[in-house]
Design a protein that fits this description.
globular
Length: about 90
């Protein structure tokens, strides 16, 4: 019985994770268009891993890195979304 439940639950876990990733991408794309697009192209950070991108955005948001635009108000969800969006370009 447990195997049967696991068999049916596995696709839900996968598609739930995919939906969450898509949600982050949509948040990231919207924030990019609202805040970043004036100075950056979508593929400016192409090939940068998502974790590295997230660290860079957090550093800018915390004021640790000089940046033209004030990003101090970014939420964790927006930072994750921007990192996912920027790192999606190869």
């Amino acid at each position: 019985m447990r195997k049967l439940i696991a068999l049916f639950a596995l696709p839900l876990v996968f598609f739930g994770t995919a939906a969450l990733a898509d949600g982050h991408m949509e948040v990231g794309k919207a924030k990019f268009e609202a805040v970043c697009a004036d100075c950056h192209y979508e593929d400016d950070f192409a090939g940068t891993p998502k974790d590295e991108m997230k660290s860079m955005i957090k550093a800018v948001s915390a004021g640790e890195v000089e940046h033209d635009e004030d990003l101090s108000g970014l939420t964790d969800e927006e930072i994750s979304g921007l990192a996912a969006y920027f790192s999606s370009f190869e």
